[in-house]
Each structure stands twice: as structure tokens, then as C-alpha cells.
Amino acid sequence: MSTYSGPVFDMARSQFETIADHIGIPQHERPRILLPKRAITVACPIHRDDGSIAVFEGYRVQHHLTFGPTKGGTRYAANVDLGEVAALAIWMSWKCALAGLPYGGAKGGIAVDPHSLSRRELEALSRRYMQEMIPFVGPQTDVPAPDMGTNEQVMAWFMDTYSMYQGQAVPEVVTGKPVAVGGTVGRREATGRGVAHLVGRAMERIGLDPRGATAIVQGYGNVGSVSALTLAEMGVRILGVSDHTACYHDPRGLDLAAIERHVAAHGSLAGFSTELAFDPKELLVQPCDVLVPAAVERVIDADVARRLRCRILAEGANGPTTPEADRVLAERDEIFVLPDILCNSGGVIVSYFEWVQDIQRLFWEEDEVKRRANQILDRAFHQVQERVQRERIPQRMAAMAIGVEKVLDGKRRRGLFP
């Protein structure tokens, strides 16, 4: 266990042990289910624009290959480390299993602030990272995707680098690409749309009318912005939004159209308003019907959980709620929790569709993509609700139990190679 450390990995391990106790996994089987199959650390040197050489550390963790290739995003952030990447890969395994996708979980990352790089430097770093990963990734081995700090353009550079090595176009090696080079319509919006779709299902469950309901979204990036816009289309009034540069709150409701225009012009929320500026530490605990943490891990601790004033907690981010906070939420029946491995699974579901379409060289219309994604989300949602009702357990425990059991069953059935 010494290879992986840090608060995010400790959190993933703690969650797993709780589930393993609940479903009765013997102690001797637990390391095989939890520990990643493979972890890669690489050095990525590039020429900076000033002529100097900089070296960045890159990571890729593949959790298991029991059902097919591994699948997971690639994160560019200054604080990325191996433990965080491993935790994200583990969560992705449970997420794929819950959705019924033929994948194991993976995650990658580079310890870099992408905003500190010029476009040329960003391309050089992305291509170098993929070049270093070529022995370990591939359409039937590990299929990267975007995550925090990366986007469609980075995926296009990944695909081109791998394809040049193979001597032919291999669009199925990554997902989240531009449509022009084999991406699928609806992929960029998929995670946020999925969050909003499941919020709608939760509203039906608790009898809350979206027309007139209110929401707060922490993290106005790709997932958060699409979640907010889709919820607004459903009739929900957005009271607060934030990103790493600014936070705004208005109990009368924010003008999302104006915010979208500002972000499109300036790249972030900073500078949108002085009158609506708000303390980001207090945003999560403001009154609302729907709270969407869509930023980073571990933002809802036990203290925040006790102070939440929402009816639905929709986890757009990975791992936003700590195990200590989960114990608090388990006693707060008035809050309906949509756990991350269910709530934000729309992205990997549509990534799966993109991979399938690339392999077949046959592409679907956007309505077909949305219909199929919602069908899978609904199936997973109902499976979780049935488990909650049958065993009288919290939403996260039910979702993770389903995912972990599927991985455990797959490993048991395949057996252990001698």
C-alpha cells in the first residue's frame, strides 16, 4: 500500500473498506480488488518558449482490465500526484461497473498548471506525455479522455501522436475528441447533462417541481456550466456559481446568459460582477433545493455537511464528499444524495459511445446519443434506488456496492492466472 498515499487515496480506500465490510468481502481478496493493476510515472521534458527546458511529472494508473480496456480522463493540475490519480482510477472502476460498461477504471495526469503554458508549450507537453504512454495505452488496453485542465484539443493532439506512431489514423485510442477527427456529438455536454437528468429523477422521487426550484453550482467549468444551463432549461433558478477565480450569489437568481457571454470572452468568472461577489467558503451552505459540487475532491467535510441547506446533493465532481461527511449525511434523511459514481457518469457513458462509433466507423445523431445515455443513467439510478430500499442503506453505499460487486464477480469468474 506504500506506493499510493495522500488524503484522496486514503478516502478511496476508506470508502472501499466500508463497502467491503458491508458486502462481506474476505480480507484476503480485498487487495486484489482495490490495488491498481498498473501505475506509470514518466518525466516529460519540453522546450519552453524562452529556450529553457522544463520537466514535468506525468502519471497514468490502470485499476483493472477484467472486463475490457481501462477508461479514464487525463488531468492537468499543479497538485496532481500518484495517490490522487490512483483514487480517481479506482472510482472510475466502480462508475463503469455501475453503468454496465465493458471497462475498468483508469486515470492520468500531469503536475502542471495549464494556464502557465503557451499554446505551443501545451501542445509539446501533451504530445510528449502521449508519446511516453504509447507502450501502455491503446484502443483495447487503455483509452484516455479529457478531465480537469484538458479538453478536445488536447485529445486531438493525443490521438495524432498515437496515430503517427501507428502509421494510420486511430481515433478510437482516445475519447472526448473534436467531432472533426472522430469525436461524437454531445460528448462535451454529456457529464453536465447527465447531472441535470439525474437531478430531475431525484426531484421526481422526492416530489419537487423543477419549475421554481433553486440551485447552486460550485465549479463553473465544463461540467458545472452545462449542469447549470440544463437545470435552468428545466425551470430551475440558479442562485450561485463559482470557479477558481470568483464566486457570485444572488437570491433573486443569476443571469446565466450574461455569465456565459462573460466566460466565453474572458475564460473565467473573474470580473463578471462586483455587486454579486460572494465568499466561496460559504457558497456551499447557502439555502437551495439543489447543490452541485462540480469542482474538486473533498470540499464537503463533516462541518460543511452539518451546515448544508439543500434537498438534493448532486455530485458533479469526483470525490467531493469525505467519508466523515458521509456519516453526517447518513443521519440527514432530508438530503437526497446523488453520489459521484452515478451522478457524473454521463461523461464516461458517452465516451463509451464514441469509442464504439470510432471502432465501427459509424456515427450516431445527437438525439440518439442523448437517448441512449439517458437510458443507461435511468437503469443505474433505478438499480441504486432498489438497493437503497431493500437494504436500508445510504445512496453512496448502494451505488458503490453494485459497482464493487460486479468487479469482484468478474475477477472471481475469470480466476487468478497461475
From TrEMBL:
Gene Ontology biological process terms, A to Z: L-glutamate catabolic process
Keywords, sorted A to Z: NAD, Nucleotide-binding, Oxidoreductase
List of residues binding NAD(+): 191, 222
Chain ranges of the Glutamate/phenylalanine/leucine/valine/L-tryptophan dehydrogenase C-terminal domain: 184-415
Binding site for substrate: 71, 95, 351
Molecular functions per Gene Ontology: glutamate dehydrogenase (NAD+) activity; nucleotide binding
Sites marked Important for catalysis: 147
Gene3D superfamilies: Leucine Dehydrogenase, chain A, domain 1 (3.40.50.10860), NAD(P)-binding Rossmann-like Domain (3.40.50.720)
Keyword set includes Oxidoreductase: yes
Catalytic residues (UniProt): 107 (proton donor)
CDD domains: NAD_bind_1_Glu_DH
Family: Belongs to the Glu/Leu/Phe/Val dehydrogenases family.
PANTHER family: GLUTAMATE DEHYDROGENASE (PTHR11606), GLUTAMATE DEHYDROGENASE 1, MITOCHONDRIAL (PTHR11606:SF13)
Protein name: Glutamate dehydrogenase
Protein species of origin: Roseomonas acroporae
